[in-house]
């Protein structure tokens, strides 16, 4: 399936009116709002709040004002980024509907990144709608855990489900859910971690370097006795702060971390190469060797300033098995586009940490999955039956698009799945009037962590997978649809025009199940609705 131009110029942000609340911080009952909420419409962006930082104690103030500033043609060609309010985001055009008779294959790579959701959450908590380019549907959906049955053998299981859309009576939502095998902390391979910390002047605020240091301490606390930690920093120059040290030597590691201070320029490219040189020394089949970059992504001096140049300089190390985690911090000059692209090309994950709560989620709760890859170059291909499905669109994954012909080309890079990770993809489809039993075939192709040849599995999607109503669908399905729909509305996806955040909120409220992250999401929808209402009324 061919996608649209990923470097399309940015359109003005579109806001969607809703009724007003007494407080933007409190979620409004979905039932009371859904009827009053009109369709999405264009409006001027809300007046931005002043610039500021996030204190470790939890107090927040708004980020830098949102301004749309296109980069030069050369820069745009290199990293597809635009700057909004000083933060740089990659520009992707949302997937449009495809007529099945013309193209019945949809092919994309797995993605378990979550940075987009936690960054959008910070915008909303600070009283602003996130920029449309900051919203990636798949990273919203995959932020949450789903209760998929884990595999009894093999790397993962696949779960298919569908139900009628609550937004458009002519359409159905279809979910492809993958659950990776669970590996306990005691079972995972020994890990050699090289923490690459940005100590440039731009990292001085409390929500950047201090939070990054505390994040590493959380990670160290949750490592095993056979794990080692090294520490490299970069600012105007690169510095080896700590040689490979047993994770059990907490006092020595903490002492090294506590010496870090911010100041100087940002030679990120040089820092990357130094960290990879350390990591490759420990790379082996039975060891996890990973570089963990903690930065705001601002690279302004030295060689290799673009993602393409950085990865080209360390590609030989990547091919030897060193993986990469990028962890973003801060607002005002955050380079989301750089962080996302580095993680993609570095066979790893991208996160955004806005609080100690998120640091614990990434480096404590999700640490094993973050470190241990259970399947690499994971590709999805959904072959829709033209006799059953007239049109379809994949919600998100625009930056994970793969040419259909490359699905079985094992030299083509794709995504990785870590231990215990779930990957969820949602399609919006329109069925034909006399749809047969077989709707589609879902194929997944993946390599073992150290393998070179991929294995392929196929799973039929039939009418038996479709529930008669959204209410009859599983709570995980309903919640995933709510999250994907909310993301599509926030990013002004043309296919979501006319959709109501009130409907999405009601759907989520009925699928919370006592989960704290889901409860927070319901509250965020309420905040988004209040902000859209204020924007539409000119306040």
From TrEMBL:
Residues 19-51 have a biased composition (Low complexity). Residues 1-51 are annotated as: Disordered. InterPro entries: CLCR, Uncharacterised_YfbK_N, VWF_A, vWFA_dom_sf, YfbK_C. Pfam families: VWA, vWF_A, YfbK_C. The lineage of its organism: Bacteria, Pseudomonadati, Myxococcota, Myxococcia, Myxococcales. It comes from the Bacteria. This is DUF3520 domain-containing protein. Residues 192-367 form the VWFA domain.
């Amino acid at each position: 399936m061919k996608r649209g131009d990923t470097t399309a110029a940015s359109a003005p942000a579109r806001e969607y009116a809703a009724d007003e609340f007494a407080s933007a911080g409190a979620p409004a009952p979905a039932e009371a709002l859904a009827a009053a909420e009109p369709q999405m419409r264009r409006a001027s962006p809300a007046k931005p709040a002043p610039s500021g930082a996030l204190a470790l104690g939890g107090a927040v103030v708004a980020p830098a004002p949102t301004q749309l500033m296109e980069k030069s043609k050369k820069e745009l060609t290199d990293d597809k980024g635009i700057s909004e309010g000083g933060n740089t985001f990659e520009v992707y055009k949302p997937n449009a509907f495809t007529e099945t008779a013309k193209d019945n294959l949809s092919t994309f790579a797995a993605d378990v990144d979550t940075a987009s959701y936690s960054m959008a959450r910070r915008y909303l908590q600070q009283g602003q709608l996130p920029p449309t380019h900051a919203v990636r549907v798949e990273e919203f959906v995959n932020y949450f855990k789903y209760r998929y049955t884990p595999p009894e053998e093999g790397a993962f299981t696949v779960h298919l489900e569908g139900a009628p859309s609550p937004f458009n009576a002519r359409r159905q939502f279809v979910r492809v859910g993958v659950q990776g095998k669970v590996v306990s902390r005691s079972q995972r391979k020994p890990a050699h971690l090289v923490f690459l910390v940005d100590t440039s002047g731009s990292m001085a605020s409390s929500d950047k370097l201090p939070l990054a240091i505390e994040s590493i301490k959380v990670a160290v606390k949750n490592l095993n006795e056979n794990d080692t930690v090294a520490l490299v920093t970069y600012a105007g120059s690169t510095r080896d702060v700590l040689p490979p040290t047993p994770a059990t030597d907490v006092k020595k590691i903490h002492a090294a971390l506590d010496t870090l201070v911010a100041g100087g320029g940002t030679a990120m490219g040089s820092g990357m190469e130094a960290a990879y040189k350390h990591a490759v020394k420990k790379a082996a089949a039975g060891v996890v060797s990973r570089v963990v970059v903690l930065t705001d992504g601002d690279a302004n001096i030295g060689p290799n300033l673009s993602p393409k140049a950085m990865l080209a300089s360390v590609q030989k190390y990547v091919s030897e098995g060193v993986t990469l985690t990028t962890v973003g911090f801060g607002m005002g000059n955050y380079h989301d586009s750089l962080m996302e692209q580095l993680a993609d090309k570095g066979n790893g994950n991208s996160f955004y940490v806005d609080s100690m709560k998120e640091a614990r989620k990434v480096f404590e709760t999700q640490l094993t999955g973050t470190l241990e890859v259970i399947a690499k170059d994971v590709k999805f291909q959904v072959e829709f039956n033209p006799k059953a499905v007239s049109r379809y669109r994949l919600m998100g994954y625009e930056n994970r698009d793969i040419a259909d012909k490359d699905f079985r080309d094992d030299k083509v890079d794709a995504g990785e799945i870590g231990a215990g990770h779930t990957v969820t993809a949602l399609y919006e489809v329109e069925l034909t009037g006399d749809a047969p039993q077989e709707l589609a075939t879902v194929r997944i192709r993946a390599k073992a962590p150290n393998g070179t040849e991929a294995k392929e599995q196929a799973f039929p999607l039939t009418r038996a997978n479709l529930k008669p109503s959204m209410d009859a669908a599983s709570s995980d399905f309903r919640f995933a649809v709510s999250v994907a729909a909310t993301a599509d509305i926030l990013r002004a996806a043309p296919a979501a025009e006319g959709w109501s955040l009130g409907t999405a909120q009601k759907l989520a409220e009925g699928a919370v199940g006592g989960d704290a992250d889901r409860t927070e999401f319901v509250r965020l929808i309420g905040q988004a609705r209040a902000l859209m209402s204020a924007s539409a009324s000119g306040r």
